[in-house]
Design brief:
The protein is an all-beta fold and 553 residues long. The chain is built from no helices and 50 strands. Strands 6, 8, 9, 12, 13 and 14 form a 6-stranded mixed sheet that branches. Strands 24, 26, 27, 30, 31 and 32 form a 6-stranded mixed sheet that branches.
């Protein structure tokens, strides 16, 4: 036999010679085909993907190869491409994904083309049979493209209207043609009815502009970004009138979430019906946190028509925050607030399970550790706290097997000792035992198991009328000595020669009018020996001879 191993596909000549001469048919032609397509061997280039502006079009060529790098020309359907983006919603950080279309170019080559317009962080996955093709997944960062002045936005109290002879402000936001925020512009000029309010070269965005108007009417704010302009109307009024709940709004905590035990602050801005911010501080805003028990929050005046409401929540979960003025909800109310768990607190863990005061050998004990924070909130995951160490030890290193099962907010440890003895079960976090730990657990023997028990005795024969004595050492199925209180017991028996209606049974017991033979005795009255057995007690054995001598041996 000739063994060979080839990893490079192609056509080969295999020569077999004897004494330098080819045997018949040699050299043999051998075609080595590529192996199965492999995600480890297939390739694509990630060059130029890391950082790009919104609106960029990307092209990638993927080549199918086997694990040895051989190109595969046959058509396949198992390649897939997925683009994912991290987004932030009311529910927190989430991932949005969509599949991309792959075009076959033939000969095992595929082309991927896609277009991204939204700025942010992306992950591109190229897969074969659900496994990543190197260098997948590829991280991509998309930034805003060139600023487009027509997409400029205003925010803040002065973006809608202003009160005559009162100071106010607004924020100018630069955006690209796709609506992505632009963080810097080459030049910025802001004017109100021809009067320049702000002029900056190389300005960071957004920019805040403070201003005041001195007569009523419609004013026009001109925003010039990189030489292009956009105009916004600003309504100036002499009389503020009354604060409107529908026009008033609140700035929420960042991300609409806080950590349990920290403060949530809502900044309330009072505005009239046309959106002019108030200058007084006597509006009666009410803030309530809606949970199992509704909590009324104190509202404090900050100044210039703004108010602040701060409160602390220690319970995790999603809550509603209702802000109203004279019984009417302000714009956007009710607000959702997510309270996330605080840090893991080893002192607050809850420990439960069947591993209590006493166990029996072979019994499975379980211990459930529920992760909690300092306020007693169950953590949504235990996987971040892998530095919890579980140990099971016994006297003289009695064996015990631990198994670990982590599910969501709990960690379950199960163990099944089979050797009786004293055990110590401990759970440690950063080298220190958790509350109520360690637990000392006596493991008792299981029920007596006769096949494992030992019978000790020296008598093998018994005369009629005699006694036989033996000792039994009771053990369980794991060969532990019997449980405490189960003493070694003795048993004795007396053999009485039964009376028979026939002449006695030499090698057996009389049962009625018949003999029941034991051992190697057979025949009438149990006086003969079984084949190949001989002697007075039929206890000697000889093999039958094949080539016997004159004496029969």
């Amino acid at each position: 036999f000739v063994d060979y191993f080839v990893t490079l596909a192609g056509t080969y000549n295999l020569a077999v010679t004897l004494n330098g001469e080819h045997i018949i048919g040699s050299p043999f032609q051998l075609a080595v085909l590529p192996a199965e397509t492999s995600p480890k061997g297939s390739v694509f280039s990630d060059e130029g993907l890391a950082l790009n502006p919104a609106g960029s079009t990307f092209h990638l060529d993927i080549e199918a190869r086997d694990v040895y790098g051989n190109s595969i020309a046959r058509e396949l359907e198992a390649f897939a491409a997925i683009i994912s983006k991290i987004v932030f919603t009311d529910a927190g950080q989430q991932t949005e994904s969509r599949s991309l279309i792959l075009d076959s170019l033939g000969a095992g080559k595929y082309r991927l083309a896609f277009y991204l317009t939204s700025s942010g962080d992306y992950s591109l996955s190229v897969l074969f049979a659900s496994a990543h093709v190197v260098p997948s997944p590829v991280k991509m960062h998309i930034v805003a493209s060139t600023v487009n002045v027509t997409e400029t936005l205003l925010s803040g109290p002065g973006s809608v209207g202003a009160l005559v002879d009162s100071s106010t402000f607004l924020n100018v936001h630069a955006r690209d043609e796709f609506g992505n925020s632009v963080l810097a512009v080459d030049s910025l000029q802001i004017s109100l009815d021809g009067s320049v309010l702000l002029q900056i070269a190389a300005a960071s965005m957004p920019q805040r502009v403070n201003f005041a108007v001195h007569d009523a009417g419609t004013k026009f704010l001109q925003v010039n970004v990189n030489g292009a302009s956009k105009s916004f109307p600003i309504i100036a009024t002499n009389n503020y009138g009354s604060t409107s709940a529908a026009s008033s709004f609140a700035e929420e905590p960042e991300g609409r979430q806080i950590i349990a035990g920290s403060a949530a602050t809502y900044h309330i801005v009072a505005r009239n019906q046309i959106g002019v911010q108030a200058s007084h501080q006597n509006d009666d805003f009410r803030v309530r946190v809606l949970q199992s028990l509704t909590t009324v929050v104190r509202v404090s005046a900050v100044g210039n028509g703004t108010y602040a409401a701060s409160f602390i929540l220690s319970a995790s979960g999603t809550f509603s925050v209702a802000i109203s003025l004279e019984g009417l909800p302000i714009s956007g109310s009710d607000f959702n607030l997510k309270v996330k768990n605080a840090e893991f607190d080893p002192i607050s863990v809850a420990i439960s399970g069947s591993a209590t005061a006493e166990m029996t050998a072979g019994q499975t004990g379980k211990l459930l550790i529920s992760a909690k924070d300092i306020y007693g909130n169950r953590l949504t995951t235990f996987r971040d706290h892998t530095d919890i160490l579980m140990t099971l030890t016994g006297s003289d290193s009695v064996p015990g097997v631990l198994s670990d099962n982590v599910e969501q907010w709990s960690k379950e440890i199960s163990f099944r000792p089979t050797v009786a003895g004293q055990y110590s079960l401990n759970a440690l976090y950063q080298g220190r035992s958790l509350p109520t730990m360690p637990r000392f657990i006596p493991v008792l023997p299981a029920a007596v198991f006769l096949p494992s028990s030992l019978v000790v005795g020296s008598q093998t024969t018994l005369e009629a009328g005699g006694n036989i004595e033996f000792q039994m050492f009771a053990k369980d199925m794991f060969e532990n000595d019997a449980a405490a209180g189960c003493e070694i017991f003795n048993a004795s028996s007396t053999y009485e020669q039964p009376t028979c209606s026939m002449e006695g049974c030499f090698g057996g017991l009389c049962q009625g009018s018949e003999c029941v033979c034991y051992g190697n005795f057979i025949g009438s009255g149990c006086r003969a020996c079984k084949s190949n057995w001989y002697g007075e007690a039929c206890s000697d054995f000889k093999l039958p001879c094949v080539l016997c001598n004159s004496n029969g041996f």
